[in-house]
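User: Study the fold:
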Amino acid sequence: METEAIFWICLMLVAYSYLFYPVCIWLPTRWFARDHRPPEVALPPPKVALLIAAHNEAQTIEAKIRNSLALDYPPERLEIVIVSDGSSDATVKIAQRFADPRVRVLDYQQRRGKSAALNAAVAQTDSEILVLTDANTDFKTNAVRNLVRWFAAAEVNVVCGRLILTDPKGAENVDSLYWRYETFLKKCEGRLDALLGANGAIYAIRREVYVPIPDNTIIDDFVIPLLSKLRHG
């Protein structure tokens, strides 16, 4: 009897996650969603640190840095921080080839995990806005500008971008049904000012509300925004 009860409870939890929760989050957006429009950006725009945590990313780091240098954001207001978390390949050497003053390389030779690497990187920058991304993610040229403009509203502490999954050979959109489901939930939560987690490939947070996370954190892109929400509203 207990086994049967546990089975039905687990089944209901799964059904809630994938069937009922989307309805529960979508219905309120029909009546209570805020009309979100980006405010006017103050001048000069805030200083931004683009943080790229990397471990053995020799195959992708050069393309990522070149993509970051091509961003449409004032060069004097942007720093690109590559945080090597115990890389044993040529990641650091490749990153250090770039002579552009915007590029900084933090070479932590002992591998401690992405969470520890991010905490260390944040402590090394005084930029107002932190943009977190992955070494294998390309940004559109206006991505950082579009993320940052929302921070002109004082009540905004975290902004999540949209990740589009593509085929590396054909550059085709290969978003799966599950990923479209995830994107739908984030849009609904955002319209209700209830976004809990972000997307680790592209999101931004005010440095002043960044809360250092435990070194053993696995889902950092969920924990970082959630702690910001809990501590700072």
Summary: The CA atoms of residues 49 and 102 lie 9 Å apart. The radius of gyration is 19 Å. The helical segments are 2-32, 61-69, 91-96, 114-123, 143-148, 177-191, 220-232.
